Amino acid sequence: MFRLKTIKERLKSLVYAWRGLIYLLKNEDSFKFQSLFSIIFIIAGFYFEIKTSEWFAQLIVITIVLSIEGLNSAIEQLANYIQPDYDENIGKVKDIAAGAVLVSGIFALVVLLLIYIPYLLAII
Ligand SMILES: Nc1ncnc2c1ncn2[C@@H]1O[C@H](COP(=O)(O)OP(=O)(O)OP(=O)(O)O)[C@@H](O)[C@H]1O
């Protein structure tokens, strides 16, 4: 009985998480933009028939970027909620969260360049 309730609760958490993902896709421009980019790279992966190890690397960087972007949006929402007015500390918190997005973005760019440059050179 207890176990069943736990499973039910877990399923509920999944529904809440799904709701959060839909919110990000509908309302957060940066998340939408990065999702679009991710889809383009997934299509490129099929087009160039990249190796399994390259698929792993690509999917990992996509997951990292989208996850950190989602967390950044959550921090922005929370910051706007607790302090809608100008506040130096809130600005710092938002800058730090944006910095984390930048780190993952640079890392993703380097990995994707390492994957695709050889394929692009081969068709030139
Ligand atoms: N309440 C605030 N007080 C002080 N500075 C702020 C405040 N809100 C935003 N800022 C500054 O403006 C920058 C941009 O914040 P903003 O909330 O507009 O995010 P954004 O980068 O436009 O993200 P998104 O486009 O995803 O909404 C912050 O990194 C911070 O430097």
TrEMBL record:
It comes from Psychroflexus salinarum. It is an enzyme of class 2 (transferase). It holds the Pfam family DAGK_prokar. This is Diacylglycerol kinase family protein. It is found in: Cell membrane. Its EC number is 2.7.1.-. GO terms for molecular function: kinase activity. The keyword ATP-binding applies. Keywords: ATP-binding, Cell membrane, Kinase, Lipid biosynthesis, Lipid metabolism, Membrane, Nucleotide-binding, Phospholipid biosynthesis, Phospholipid metabolism, Transferase, Transmembrane, Transmembrane helix.
